[in-house]
């Protein structure tokens, strides 16, 4: 991600002069996000609660580690072609993997009151809290006391929360249409060639990443079984190797901003016809690398499986350190960080920090912000009251 900041949120790449009546400012990059699934409804009396799938918890943990590592590589990419190549490869699939998992676990979402409540408390409220917290942090850490609050213009990592809120609300619609994935790709393509969409709710990113959420909605358990076959796991090794070689070749020739999905092609200085081409090409590359990533995710319970339930914590909390490292000039003031051993050290530190931030003690400490109960804010649902009475009498 980039770390140049505008008055609020992310800056956009300037449009060519003839295409921009007013010059937009460059903006900073996320994502990450992380796909945290709201807790399932309480099991009826006498039934055991549904067990978590270790595969998905493992996938979420490994993906959030890659998010943190990529954030730590961003300041190194200007001077290191290897770091830039790794950065581009990881950015091709780490957020698409999160978003796909989010879509997969949104398949049962409807407008039922209890699910709407969980959407508000598990996504909307954390968005508001962290948007305010990041703004206060920016004011203090970057010595910018006049930095504006804005809930319409997500700053840094919070874009994923507002996008997830909108995507999940749209789930019933995607269940109705006949060809959801082609339709979502058409919407993403139109967004990619529409520079006037604006920054409200980070709509460019929301629409350009939409196909991955819709793909997750359309997936079934047997699709994940296919991805996890031994033949796919073997094939993923040369595929990843080819991706790294291509990224190493492309690093000095191509901007990594394409992978952020936050700008239109006009803002990137590219002709409009590249919108459909790059949308489809990046979607295809991302799907292939996401599949390769899933193929190597362990299926059994691992030491880090429990951390998969806390990836939203790691995602949002590590952003303070990622941005603070830039505000305080750590990478500018320590030249050794740009050497091979320094780059390895930065990678290990990033992975370790985000791992700690996903642990149960951290989850308990910040649950008030991530998963607030807020029973006081909602009316009692008559159907829910009836179920509670039935369960009590049984």
From TrEMBL:
The chain crosses the membrane at residues 55-73, 85-106, 118-137, 149-167, 231-251, 277-296, 303-321, 341-362. GO terms for molecular function: acyltransferase activity, transferring groups other than amino-acyl groups. It comes from the Bacteria. Keywords: Membrane, Transmembrane, Transmembrane helix. Residues 54-358 form the Acyltransferase domain. Residues 1-50 are annotated as: Disordered. It holds the Pfam family Acyl_transf_3. This is Fucose 4-O-acetylase. It comes from Streptomyces melanosporofaciens.
């Amino acid at each position: 991600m980039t770390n140049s900041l505008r008055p609020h949120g992310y800056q956009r790449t300037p449009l060519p002069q003839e295409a921009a009546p007013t010059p937009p400012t460059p903006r900073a990059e996320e994502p990450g996000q992380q796909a945290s699934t709201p807790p399932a409804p309480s099991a009826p009396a006498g039934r055991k609660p549904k067990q978590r799938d270790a595969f998905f918890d493992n996938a979420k943990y490994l993906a959030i580690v890659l998010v943190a590592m990529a954030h730590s590589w961003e300041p190194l990419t200007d001077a290191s072609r290897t770091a830039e190549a790794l950065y581009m490869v990881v950015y091709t699939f780490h957020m698409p993997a999160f978003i796909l998992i989010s879509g997969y676990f949104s398949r049962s979402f409807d407008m039922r009151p209890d699910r709407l409540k969980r959407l508000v408390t598990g996504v909307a409220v954390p968005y508001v809290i962290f948007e305010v917290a990041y703004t206060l942090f920016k004011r203090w850490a970057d010595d910018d006391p006049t930095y504006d609050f804005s809930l319409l213009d997500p700053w840094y990592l919070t874009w994923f929360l507002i996008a997830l809120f909108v995507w999940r609300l749209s789930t019933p619609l995607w269940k109705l249409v006949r060809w959801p994935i082609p339709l979502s790709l058409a919407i993403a393509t139109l967004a990619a060639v529409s520079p006037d969409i604006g920054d409200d709710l980070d709509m460019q990113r929301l629409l350009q990443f939409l196909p991955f959420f819709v793909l997750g909605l359309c997936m079934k358990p047997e699709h994940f079984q296919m991805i996890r076959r031994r033949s796919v796991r073997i094939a993923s090794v040369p595929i990843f190797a080819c991706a790294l070689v291509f990224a190493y070749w492309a690093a000095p020739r191509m901007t990594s901003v394409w992978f952020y999905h936050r700008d239109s092609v006009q803002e990137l200085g590219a002709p409009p016809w590249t919108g459909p081409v790059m949308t489809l090409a990046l979607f295809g590359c991302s799907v292939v690398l996401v599949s390769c990533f899933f193929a190597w995710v362990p299926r059994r319970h691992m030491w880090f499986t429990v951390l998969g339930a806390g990836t939203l914590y790691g995602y949002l909390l590590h952003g303070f350190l990622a941005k603070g490292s830039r505000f305080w000039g750590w990478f500018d003031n320590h030249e050794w960080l740009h050497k091979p051993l320094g780059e390895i050290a930065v990678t290990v530190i990033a992975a370790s920090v985000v791992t700690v931030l996903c642990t149960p003690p951290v989850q308990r400490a910040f649950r008030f912000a991530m998963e607030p109960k807020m029973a006081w804010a909602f009316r009692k649902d008559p159907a829910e009251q009836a179920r509670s009475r039935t369960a009590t009498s049984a």
